[in-house]
Amino acid sequence: MTKIFDTPLYAYERSADQEEGTRARHSVVIIGAGPVGLTTAIDLAQQGVDVVVLDDNDRVSFGSRAICFAKRPLEIFDRLGCGQKMVDQGVQWHKGKVFFDTREVYDFSLTEEQGHKRPAFINLQQYKLEQILVERIRTLQEEGAPVEIRGRNKVEAVGQHDDHVALEVETPEGSYTIEADWLVACDGANSATRRMLGIGFDGEVFEDNFLIADVVMEADFPSERWFWFDPPFNQGQSALLHKQPDNLWRIDLQLGRDIDKEREKRPENVLPRLRAMLGDKVKFSLDWISIYSFQCSRMDRFVHGRTIFAGDSAHQVSPFGARGANSGLQDADNLAWKLKLVLDGAAPPTLIDSYHFERAQAADENIRHSTNATEFITPKTEMSHILRDAVLDLSMHHAFARPMVNSGRLSSPCTYDDSRLNSADALQAPATTRPGSPCMDAPLGDGHLLDLLGNKFCLLTIDADAPDSLTEGGVTAHRVSLSIKDDPTLTLKRQYLGNCPSGVYLIRPDQHVAARREAYDEPHFRAALRRATGKE
């Protein structure tokens, strides 16, 4: 059977930029056609920004790689026109179970909050996501959006200048040079861009090794996340089981340190491990095998002159909790609207610095959670091992111990509490929608709140008066007027008003809250709009 990743999806084609004597300048060039690079390109293209994606490959990634996508990225993909495709193709789940040897310690439910459009998580192979994103770019091209993907275009050199970046690009027909007002490096954990610019990457390297096996099987296991500590089929180590589409299952097995990686990857060594886990009666076949170790690291700064780093090129975490890809997608969401404003002259270039500040905060949060999970899953001393096992034993019978069990704190969006783009909180409403936080969804008749907010600045008024729009410094926030009567479930009141009779919110294009008050106050919201665009 031909796989998606067996066929070029963006095959090499000669571009006009390769003509002799040409040195084209593009608004944005993105290096890397993975999920983060493609997402950034779609977001920019939908806003009319001229963007070119360069990749030294010409097809989607091999193997499942990232598979768990959380509700917040799904909401981002809704804005980009491809969220429904992901949900339609993915496996939805919200329940997990934790085992200690053969015993079930406890289960948990990520119950979907009432009225939210998207589920807590879906599982979808990375190559399927990349195909969806490439198809979305093709649709945008047909609609006239200024976006290109150039396969087998490998960036060999990067030159930083005060007002642009120059790139030397190698192709099957030789090299050419292009320029970009801004360069976004989404070229992964082993970023060549980072290396070419001589930028460091600091953090902690973990020496444990893990086997990933994607297994095709028809099994009656539910669509849940199952995690084992010290199971009999992998004694002294951990294991994870996840369902994917097309009868594909992801299995992670901890192997420990000091192993022969090539030997452990051989099918004759992998198959006995899987049979011990799944049982002799389950028929299965191997689809993909890999062995990985990981580090929790990040760059000191994500912005270097006119070059911006996003996704794994900027920060890396352990896979426990699905924080890698989900965080990278939120990098793209944070960056695109800021680039658009700066390119339009509606915001100063210093606005891009807020991308580093906010996403570095998110990276630190993810690294902290990932490091804690790793230390619990792979205790390094005899005492920490005894303590962990005691916590697991207690959690079977005592609820107080269950929050201490850490098989990976699952991905959640970051609230930018200390961002300089926030205005002081002036509404005694729930903290979940305070300045810096992502907007919570709510049902509105046949639709949902986040769909109304879109990807522009807006004034969300709930049982409050305000003008239809507010323009400050060339940036306009359009009003979205609602009443708690629009939502019989009272989700809107619960999440945005609490005990307040009304509320007015200034919402950023990435649907994070910039300011909120009980009533519209023009000077306050003008100042808040200036602050949110980096002018104060």
Q: How does this structure look, described?
A:
The chain is of the alpha+beta class and 536 residues long. Among the domains are: 4-89 and 122-201 and 297-365, FAD/NAD(P)-binding domain (3-Layer(bba) Sandwich); 431-532, Glutaredoxin (3-Layer(aba) Sandwich). Helix content is 28%, strand content 29%. It has helices spanning 35-46, 71-79, 83-89, 126-142, 192-196, 261-265, 267-278, 324-343, 351-377, 382-395, 449-453, 491-496, 522-532; strands at 25-31, 51-55, 68-70, 91-93, 95-100, 103-109, 121-123, 147-151, 154-160, 165-171, 174-185, 202-217, 225-229, 238-244, 248-256, 284-298, 303-304, 307-309, 315-316, 443-444, 447-448, 458-462, 469-472, 475-482, 503-507, 513-517. The strands form five sheets. Strands 1, 2, 8, 9, 10, 11, 17 and 18 form an eight-stranded mixed beta sheet that branches. A hairpin with a 2-residue loop joins β20 (443-444) and β21. α1 runs parallel beside α8 (324-343). It is globular. The N and C termini lie far apart (58 Å).
CATH architecture of the domain at 4-89 and 122-201 and 297-365: 3-Layer(bba) Sandwich
CATH topology of the domain at 4-89 and 122-201 and 297-365: FAD/NAD(P)-binding domain
Tell me the number of strands: 26
Strand proportion, as a percent range, falls in: 25-35%
Largest sheet: 8 strands, mixed
CATH homologous superfamily descriptor of the domain at 4-89 and 122-201 and 297-365:
FAD/NAD(P)-binding domain
Any idea of the CATH class of the domain at 4-89 and 122-201 and 297-365? Answer: Alpha Beta
pLDDT under 50 segments (min length 5)? none
Helix content: 25-40%
Total count of helical runs of at least 4 residues: 13
Taking the alpha carbons of the first and last residues, their distance comes to 58 Å
